[in-house]
Amino acid sequence: xxxxxxxxxxxxxxxxxxxxxxxxxxxxxxxxxxxxxxxxxxxxxxxxxxxxxxxxxxxxxxxxxxxxxxxxxxxxxxxxxxxxxxxxxxxxxxxxxxxxxxxxxxxxxxxxxxxxxxxxxxxxxxxxxxxxxxxxxxxxxxxxxxxxxxxxxxxxxxxxxxxxxxxxxxxxxxxxxxxxxxxxxxxxxxxxxxxxxxxxxxxxxxxxxxxxxxxxxxxxxxxxxxxxxxxxxxxxxxxxxxxxxxxxxxxxxxxxxxxxxxxxxxxxxxxxxxxxxxxxxxxxxxxxxxxxxxxxxxxxxxxxxxxxxxxxxxxxxxxxxxxxxxxxxxxxxxxxxxxxxxxxxxxxx
Amino acid sequence: xxxxxxxxxxxxxxxxxxxxxxxxxxxxxxxxxxxxxxxxxxxxxxxxxxxxxxxxxxxxxxxxxxxxxxxxxxxxxxxxxxxxxxxxxxxxxxxxxxxxxxxxxxxxxxxxxxxxxxxxxxxxxxxxxxxxxxxxxxxxxxxxxxxxxxxxxxxxxxxxxxxxxxxxxxxxxxxxxxxxxxxxxxxxxxxxxxxxxxxxxxxxxxxxxxxxxxxxxxxxxxxxxxxxxxxxxxxxxxxxxxxxxxxxxxxxxxxxxxxxxxxxxxxxxxxxxxxxxxxxxxxxxxxxxxxxxxxxxxxxxxxxxxxxxxxxxxxxxxxxxxxxxxxxxxxxxxxxxxxxxxxxxxxxx
DNA sequence: TTGTACGCGTTATCAG
DNA sequence: CTGATAACGCGTACAA
Lengths: 349, 349
Prior knowledge:
- Two copies of one chain form a homodimer.
- By secondary structure, the first copy, chain A, is α/β, with parallel strands linked by helices.
- Chain A has three domains: about 5-70, lambda repressor-like DNA-binding domains (434 Repressor (Amino-terminal Domain)), CATH 1.10.260.40; about 80-175 and about 305-330, Response regulator (Rossmann fold), CATH 3.40.50; about 175-305, Response regulator (Rossmann fold, 3-Layer(aba) Sandwich).
- Chain A is built from 13 helices and twelve strands.
- In chain A, strands 2-1-3-4-5-11 form a six-stranded parallel sheet, with helices on both faces. The first copy, chain A, has a six-stranded mixed sheet with strand order 7-6-8-9-10-12, with helices on both faces.
- In chain A, α1 crosses α2 (about 35-45), α1 packs across α3 (about 50-65) and α5 (about 95-110) crosses α13.
- The N and C termini of chain A lie far apart (about 65 Å).
- At the A-B interface, α4, α5, β2, α6 and α9 of A face α4, α5, β2, α6 and α9 of B.
- Chain B binds a DNA duplex through α2 and α4.
């Protein structure tokens, strides 16, 4: 408890001292260095435009005064703010956390800061948040947006925009390719003797959900396995639980869920109804989120490179912002099958 | 796949159209409404200072022009930016999920946006991030900071600062009181016959870790139960695993871990060594994070009101920012024991 | 109630 | 290479 300084606790205290002298400006530096403010500006923003001597004097003065650019003043003439916005649909969904972290790390490394907003799974909120942010940030990342293509394109017409896990014509995007992971997964299931597979879908408007379904269907057909889809719900643990009844009613011996959250919910609901996983049913999720290996049995899943997704999105959107990249380019990262305990051989008839 | 517009994919596309006419300013509105720009400014910032008629004309014009304040231009004269910073030590720690969300929700409701940064458990990074943010935001929230008191106080001398789960003299704080939850937990353990309890500590510099330890110790002494502490480590699943050896070496029949992450790691490591939980050892965590009920057995834990913590921190820091609250006030939220499967009766000697 | 004029800290465009 | 000066968009004393 060494960090608790005053025994009494949290008493009142004089308000913010005036002693915090107003932050130094380029004028202060100019005066101290004996040059013109505009020279200071040049020295600080684009080194090389002033003589080495002056440059040094200015740097010293800046150091001494503990100078920090006022990004707002800078933003006025330039329009650039050194911030990038990130909008996610659900902050508490662990799948987004590595994306956020990836983006934050990459931003920080480039001396940008991240502005975060949440759309709470609502297209309206998303659009509002996006518009508000757009006036402030240099670039915007939309993580698995629920917006219509036109809205996104409209946004992208004003500032660099990159979407993750979705493709929108003319807009930069970074997506985790389901192909590799799903191919491995279906092959594995086929090897284990499964003949009928189901897919528990995600939100209606999720590009990624239909993408995953298409891929699964294609691979299953290739292997001559029957496929079906079951009623979609919220992409949450609760949503997964709701799907349990439909899954039990079907003939599938293995089921893919739109994401790990749903897979976990489904598994737990089934288990509490006495069904043994994977003995009686195999379950697979997508993403490999935190906690997906905590369950019993641990969840088999198709891992998305979440962190890399965040890094890539930020990199792309900033490159675009600085004109280094083509607007509307697309990047694809690969997925990977993680076999754990929730998948097994088809049950004996 | 309805959202995929162009079959070909992501081809090139003309660069950002110039048609995106420069954003409307109050001058544009003034012209359209036939008034002076300063009147527009007044109408938009503090309604009531202009006649209802003019007000209406201005609102209409603003609407028509799709006007959005330029917060940077506004920030220059006022110094206020409508943003608040939030620094967490580890974005991927689920314990912060709900804090972040609480803060974001509350911020959004007050028309503020959240700027997020991560310190990656390093006091240096934290200070750097904090300083950088401080020039930009109206107020700053430090979630479980690793900084020294003096650094935090210095920060707080410049802008409103609130810390969570820590007390710093003269600085606003919101903490989850461990008292209630721990009291219940220890009583429960006592009822179950436990006579020796251990605490797996968190990071050395964590105020909350020593706080939890003090509370546990006090309650155990009250019940006449022996207490000990075991080597601390990183507050992660991995850190919990590392503590397994020390825990096995001790005499405790029940152990509290600094947080759920560690508790989960400890439990899994022990289980893989063949120890049955809770038959041979009872385990308790703190926080009740996402996933803590996924384990087998599900983790008993002392729940922190994470979301409320985030809301309270944001509310307090903004109140302070607008002069409504005393700087350095403290708020305490209660904790609650969640009994699940990882705790049970003391093993038969 | 409304208009005038100036300042906020920086960058950019000119001269010199 | 450097200095003066005009924006950038908005808030706000002050005057009308």
